Amino acid sequence: MTAYFEYLRDMIVAFFKHLGLFFTKVFASPWSEVPGNFAYYNSLFGSYSPSFGFWGWFFYVIFFIFFISLIGGICFGLFLLIRKYIRFVKRELDKDELRRQVERLNYELYQAVLEKDKILNLKTGYMGLKADDMSKEEKEIIEEVSSRFPKLTRVDQLYEDADTSIMFKEGLSLEELVNSFRNYAASKLKLYYPVDVIRQLFAGIATSKLIILEGISGTGKTSLAYALGKFFSFDSALIPVQPSWKDRSELLGYYNEFTKKFNESEFLKALYITTYRKDLDIIVLDEMNLARIEYYFAEFLSVMEMRDVEDWVIDLIPSPQADDPKHLKEGKLLIPQNVLFFGTANNDDSTFTISDKVYDRAISIFFEDKGRFFESEEQEPLSIPYAQLNMLFEDAKKQFGVSEALLRKFEELDNFIIKKFKLAFGNRILKQLDSFIPVFVACGGTETDGFDFIFTNKILKKFESLNIAFLKDELGELDAYLDKLYGKGNFQMAHRYIEGLLKNN
To answer: 343 with 267: CB under 8 angstroms?
Structure first.
């Protein structure tokens, strides 16, 4: 027994002694020769230095400085590499930690959805409830869980058995429609608009799907769109534009890959509702120039330029499913012809300037002051199909074609503008004349006033981008040329606009 313990002692001592020698050779042995190396360098220096002479010592000092700098540079480079590596490792660790947190949150959200599903299943299964026994709100909850488009699916349900047909109103004319709306706004809503503004409004509806109502705050811009919806017996949808809007997802919504649902906006819901209706439906983008219109509304501006209305489609989702909303075909929504987009715009420092791209495609109506009171007849709302309104527009185009004499004068005016200001009307404006002028005349206006409106809102507005201070003489010539071409007392809008340009500059 004694011999065993002596063996164990000697074995343990020998093991740790050999382990120590191993680490000594691995880590210490490479450095054991270093003191001898420095001693050798010192002996070399001692042997040769007495014979250096002046130049030898000179070059020795230079070499020594260079050598020390080289060693310092190598050490500094190693330091930078090590620090960069440490930062890289730390960044990767932070990414891994962030990824783990995101995965954990996703898992918790997934568990919450599952828990919600379990509660619904318990309610419908274990409590013996059938679909017919559930309340309306409970059905909506279950359907929202299963549908990618809960709001649009709800619209499908609301209009599933609804009768949206509307009878034509016999003997209705555009002039009567203008007067009826003006009297309705005054008698029912205490909103007073000049008759020319209402004529411009209906002529604009016949010309473009985008109507911009501009002016200072409190002049009745939003109220006009609101009143028009009330007059046609279906309230306008009011969508407040936010300054943060930068693309179409702010307007339409977007598909959430994690929840597998489409985050529908109120604008998309209002647009989808119009696919079921037969009347004129209005969507108002309130304060639309708080953000850049050509950013978030760009797709609509492009789509509505297409000649074939069957191509007026908006892509919503790339992979359609069988339970998607009924009027969503292959993940695309066709913009119906009975929808009209209104945009209200304040002209102040908090808003963006509306670009020519938007102005060219829209009809802009400017509100200079509040409406003045006038005696009006009592007028009830009307309910007419959009097809009848469109038919009135088409009849006006056939009955009140633009006269050749005024077209020639407008061409002369175009040549004058090109010569003096290097601006041209463009084919789009000439095309809009064919719709705007006949409908404006059918509403009770005159051709000259219609041309005045188009010239002022489509051409003179572009002058704001010019340096007016250097064009005062040319503007005076334009003012006189309008009188020469159309006669004094005509083109009052254009004269007032030119006067304002000269006064402000």
So the answer is: no
CB 264 within 8 A of CB 257: no
Other C-beta atoms closer than 10 Å to the C-beta of 291 total: 22
The pair of structure tokens assigned to 314 is 């908006």
DSSP state of 354: P
Q: Which residue has the tokens 């609804």?
A: 162
The first and second tokens of residue 280, run together, are 């004129």
Task: Please tell me the distance from the alpha carbon of residue 153 to that of residue 156, in angstroms, as a whole number.
Answer: 5
> Could you give phi then psi for residue 282, rounded to 5 degrees?
-120, 130
Sign for the CA dihedral angle at 451, 456, 460, 462 comes to: negative
Q: How far apart are CA 25 and CA 456, in angstroms?
A: 95
- Pairing label, strands 281-286, 339-346: parallel
Concatenated DSSP letters of 307-341: SSGGG-EEE--SS--TTS-TTEETTEEEPPTTEEE
Contact 355, 294 (CB under 8 A): yes
Tokens of 458: 């489509």
How far apart are alpha carbons 232 and 299 in whole angstroms? 28
CA separation for the pair 447, 406 (Å, rounded): 8
- The dihedral region occupied by 444, where left means phi > 0, alpha psi between -120 and 50, and beta the remainder, is left
- Bridge partners of 364, per DSSP, are 212
In tens digits, the chain (505 residues) has pLDDT values of 676 666 667 667 677 777 677 767 766 666 566 566 667 667 766 777 777 677 777 776 787 787 788 788 888 888 888 888 777 767 766 766 766 776 676 666 656 655 555 544 444 333 343 444 444 554 554 444 467 999 999 999 999 888 888 999 998 999 999 999 999 999 999 999 999 999 999 999 999 999 999 987 777 889 999 999 999 999 999 999 999 999 999 999 998 888 888 999 999 999 999 999 999 999 999 999 999 999 999 999 999 989 899 999 999 998 888 889 999 999 999 999 999 999 999 877 778 888 888 999 999 998 877 778 888 889 999 999 999 999 999 999 999 989 999 889 998 998 999 988 888 777 888 889 999 999 999 999 999 999 999 999 988 888 887 888 888 899 999 999 999 999 998 999 999 999 988 887 6
